Prior knowledge:
Layout: H1 36-41, E1 46-51, H2 64-68, E2 72-73, H3 79-88, E3 95-100, H4 131-161, E4 169-172, H5 188-191, E5 195-198, H6 218-226, H7 240-243, E6 254-260, E7 264-271, E8 275-280, H8 296-303, E9 314-318, H9 336-352, H10 358-365
Parallel strand pairs: 1-2, 1-3
Antiparallel strand pairs: 4-5, 6-7, 7-8, 8-9
Helix pairs in contact: 3-4
Amino acid sequence: MQSEPGSPVDRMLPPRKWYEGLAHRGYALNDYKQHIIHTLRREGYVSALAGVQHIASPKAEEEAWQIIGYDTCLSGDQYEQQAASFLERSPKTPFFLSVGFFETHREFLVVQDASDNPNYCLPPSPLPDTPETREDMARYKASARELDRKMGVVLDALERSGLAENTLVICTTDHGIAFPRMKCNLNDSGIGTMLIMRGPGGFVGGKVIDCMTSHLDIFPTICDLLQIEPPPWLRGKSLLPLVSQETPKLHDELFFEINDHAAYEAVRAVRTERWKYIRRIDEHRTPVLLNCDNGESKSLWLNHGWAEQPVPEESLYDLVFDPNETNNLAGDAASQGILNVMRERLMRWMESSNDSLLNDFMRSLSDVESEPTSSVL
């Protein structure tokens, strides 16, 4: 039986020590002073928030933007217009402006543009090509079209202000798109996010950089661009050497996790250029349905028995020959050396990040005989 988000069944969670869920579900950062606006404030920057943020909830004495530490909140339903007005006033001091959009979040908009005709909207892999999934994708595209319009309002205002050439614009998302096996999943279809940057530091000319990067790299990039000392606790690497072509890549491995969205689900993953290792550290052996937003695609899968489909405790995928991650090699005898290397990579990350689930992960591997290996991934 599928319970409603926030029910007692969903909230029976193990204690955790850092931000592992949504703010409106009771989670918070340990230290909001680690938000980038505080580093920038020391360099003379003012900060403003418009639209959606997902890391703080209001308290009796403070609004969410005050908890985070923004200098001002640009309130109003048409937050893209509020952001545009802020830019058109041509701030006299350096600024950090965050504009959070709700578009492309469910529920998607109703299709109105003829170019979004569902008959010609191919759904993304791994969804089947059916009338239901095409309708779902068409509505997503309609939402993306509205997002594009609102972003255009902000970018046009930046041009009119005369500040465009000296302003770094970062356009990104917080997870994969809201379809089954995408958002709230650690397959590439869930961890892949948009990242478009424009402005000083070489972010011009329509470059396409095809290598692994992380959201953790954005903060160090800004520090590097401003030539300021990054905080000592900062993770990630500056993207500037990639942009200037000083190096062909930044990372040999990236790490990902799920903790608590609409329901508790503990999963960790590590990815190299070729391999993906996913480890489930909870008791779920079928999909956690609450963590998939409702829509036509989800309904189609549910009508065909998705709720009873098994989910593996451990997965290993070869992303060169299996980019859609459908052939789990964790049980393949020929892949055991690589499997052990990927387990070790994940364990080292969990140790270095003080992951509260490290002991659970170690216990889950206690019966597995790891073979020494010198494999290079």
